[in-house]
């Protein structure tokens, strides 16, 4: 091939840009490239094709769709490309931040589980400020409301930056009832809440920073409304002479096991004096 004249074969151009022959044919069909045909019907790619393929790779790596790539390649004014790239850069930065936070929380969950597999921790900590989304009460009928459902759906898209959460009424715990009407929801750190652009609503509440007994609850995933789910932590508080002064809340780590026997692990914070 006459490479000095910027003429390349299908195999050459495919290798340069990581494309298959079928992929090149697809780009040609969409008008991104327009290779000429030699007498043997083999495609020959020109400098203009190289420009298009170079930018198709650029735009693909920026996560533009094929149709968006075609549009960008056909722009008559550079301002359209500039605007599109600036908007995409902002989206990619947000996605990169989110992936970093997912990695951070995945690693943190792994560390907590590793420790819990060796020993169940009981320690006094300063719980960071958190925001909790209320979904329903365990024993109450779940009434569907679109606004609440949409909010819950939005939160679920960012798991594990936020996670499932339980909230117990300390008054109900003190009554020593076997079954408790635990509040079910999601919980997230205040910093992540703000960074994700969430807003306070009728279903959210601030869980303030305070001194807590911290532990990991472990038990049958279907027993979360029963007193035995909390009993190890309650026994620890009693043995240490600690007084609970607020509602305990949890953050789910994982649920494992078969459908017949599922084991749930939750971090838990019991506010103390």
Give an overview in words.
The structure is a single chain. The protein has helices at residues 10-17, 21-29, 47-61, 66-73, 78-118, 146-156, 170-174, 190-195, 227-240, and strands at 36-37, 43-44, 122-127, 130-137, 162-167, 183-189, 204-207, 210-220, 249-258, 261-271. The protein is α+β, with helices and mostly antiparallel strands and 273 residues long. It is built from nine helices and ten strands. The model has no long low-confidence stretch (mean pLDDT 93). Strand 9 (249-258) and strand 10 form a beta hairpin. Helix 3 crosses helix 4 (66-73). It folds into two domains: 3-74, Multidrug-efflux Transporter Regulator, Chain: A, Domain 2 (Orthogonal Bundle), CATH 1.10.1660; 121-271, Multidrug-efflux Transporter 1 Regulator Bmrr, Chain A (Alpha-Beta Barrel), CATH 3.20.80.10. The strands form three sheets. It has a four-stranded antiparallel β-sheet with strand order 3-8-10-9, sandwiched between helices. It has a four-stranded antiparallel β-sheet with strand order 5-6-4-7.
